[in-house]
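Lab notebook, entry 802. We have the chain sequence and a SMILES string for thiamine diphosphate, and the next step in the workflow is to get a structural model of the bound complex before anyone spends time on docking refinements. Request logged below.

Task: model protein plus thiamine diphosphate, output structure tokens.
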Amino acid sequence: MSDATTVDAATPVAAATRAPLSDELLAKMDAYWRAANYLSVGQIYLKDNPLLKRPLTLDDVKPRLLGHWGTTPGLNFLYVHWNRLIRERNLNMIYLIGPGHGGPGLVANTYLEGSYTEIYPHVEQNEDGIKRLFRQFSWPYGIPSHVAPETPGSIHEGGELGYSLVHAYGAALDNPGLIVACVVGDGEAETGPLATSWHSNKFLNPATDGAVLPILHLNGYKIANPTVLARIAHAELEELMRGYGYEPFTLEGDDPVEMHRKAAALFDTIFDRIAAIQKAAREEGASERPAWPMLILRTPKGWTGPKFVDGRPVENTWRAHQVPLDGLRQNPGHLKQLEEWMRSYKPGELFDEKGRFRDELADMAPKGNRRMGMNAHANGGRLLVPLKVPHFRDFEVKIEDRGAKDVESTRVLGRLLHAVMEANLDTKNFRVFGPDETASNRIQDVITGVGKAWMAETLPVDENLSPTGRVMEVLSEHLCQGWLEGYLLTGRHGFFSCYEAFIHIVDSMVNQHAKWLKTTREIPWRKPIASLNYLLSSLVWRQDHNGFSHQDPGFIDHLMNKKADVVRIYLPPDANTLLSVADHCLRSRHYINLIVAGKQPLPQWLTMDDAVAHCTAGLGEWKWASNCESDPEVVMACSGDVPTMEAMAAVMLLRTQAPDLRVRVVNVVDLMALQPTSEHPHGLPDEEYDQLFPPKVPCIFAFHGYPWVIHRLTYRRHNHDGLHVRGYKEEGTTTTPFDMCVLNNIDRFQLALDAIKRVPRLAPQLEAAQQGYSEAIQRHKLYVVENGEDLPEIRNWRWREQ
Ligand SMILES: Cc1ncc(C[n+]2csc(CCOP(=O)(O)OP(=O)(O)O)c2C)c(N)n1
Ligand SMILES: [Mg+2]
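Result returned:
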């Protein structure tokens, strides 16, 4: 396999006038397609008798028929044609499949082109290899039914529909030599993420990015219904595509010979268009947004499969979606029909006696890394150039007195990100993504000098929009997530900043990405890629402009469900810890890193040296805030910036309410350190945990998110009963910052009272403490209602060392 230096970028080849393809070549292409279809059907049905050397019996058939036929012949048809175009034009091309359930087709084609055997040598190019190929498909401990990470050439499994086109665009960014052909299922096209993905063409620069060729696979049906786009007038569909800014081309039919001929001519036109667009932008200085071509492929679902089964139409209906003949054991007629169907592809013409794909057909595939199963862009780790991350300490916030000054932590991070952006401008392998919130989340320094990508119209009032911009902003979390995934999967680096509450929009996408990372970790030929880094800001506690709708810290809960070796969650309490965490995340590989950090001015606690030590440990005592050495009576723990401030304020309150109480302050920046080592690689060993959180000593834990997150992480630890967690409990509205804490009982008064309540020797003081709490809260409520802001002593509160 080659590495980054040997993967050449194809330059577009403009076409001269072309003679139509000869009948001989078209016949060979048809044979190649039949071979792919044959192998696809074989994978779904057979475990033996792979070349049909003897009549098919039930013993040859798998006991469970699992897979999807309907989408597959269309995918195979395109593969054969792409192969010709790749060879003729020396294209550097990958192929993304929206309806990933067409897995058998991609496995078949990568087998025919030789990639599959190169990667999996036991699946040889002979009868035994074909038998293995068939048997392993959808078989326990074999291979998945979809275009999964195991499938060569794939960066998109397509199990969850909707993300193909956005992945395709992410892959094309900053890859000027790459063409990404992307099949969108007509059912898939009904999903929200796919519907917005068409707009990616407003962000793709033909001079500096690659090309995406969307193919709407209009096979008319989903699982059980017609598709919307197949049942509107064709003119309306073309108008829709024009409205999205594309030049639509249509290929329609069901006669194979005729379709090959029409396809070859049309695809030449389409690839000439792409070449012309790129030439105009790259050589002639054209700067306007081009109308990129897109293809509408209208072919029958289950094309070339059984036309009728048990008297009911199957080809060209939704009934072709999965397994058209599924009653083999009950119905001998089905077995016969299967055999006829498979023999209709004439396997004897396609494979020789030994089961080897005939040379004259095999020769039609591209060679080496031009084969789509071998293209390094579909195994991004092979191309990964390490990110240059300037020294984060240069962005340090100087701390003279702890807690003395307020700083917007994310603004500081923005400066580091800007430096990262600049340091990698030569390799153009870093982008920042956000749903219109880069400035709102206060990391806007990253935009300085590099601008925001924009190929649509501009007005004099616009700022920083540029066709070569490197920050990607669009009001679609789906697009941000999907572009970034496509960018990472093809071997680049990135960063996604988002409002905390709305990142949930991509919950499902991150599930899929986490699965991809988990699986590829176990596939030796897949090389590690850069981590997917999130900054969540505009946090639950400080929704000053917005209120309840914007308050949801639950993405933490969501990520915690993922495999421990994939997920990292950080809650840096101030700017220096944020810098240290971000540096770590940007350099890491194959993780999903979640950083939760506020943008509002908040106290700064740690010098850079302290911050680095704290982040390295993941959690630890803040000795300068504790008032005892080794025998605390209560641990005040905190995680997240606002909860840290409240915990620190509670510690100060305790100094007057219970002056002799021995308090230990612990801050948690790496949430996963709370888990036992057996559950997460970052988990603190039990002995160290017990030293920090001594058994029998109560712990009051102020947490940024939902309280049960902490319980879930620590339920196996000693003294779990002694852990009392305060966090967000879905109480909120548009109110003052401190009132948000009061509403959710995470405020300093509550935390101090919690401590007194849980230390038995302070029982005599409890009643007075409760009284004091009620008075403080009442005073606060009256004041905020009357004045619209927090009490001066809250607003002006400062940490004082004892
Ligand atoms: C987001 C999502 N919703 C539902 C499904 C279940 N599903 C699998 S295939 C399919 C129909 C897909 O139809 P289409 O995109 O037209 O694909 P094709 O006809 O090419 O099979 C559905 C609904 C899914 N995989 N993903
Ligand atoms: Mg369909």
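Notes for the group: The longest strand covers residues 178-185. Worth checking against the assay data. Residues 1-16 have pLDDT under 50 and may be disordered.
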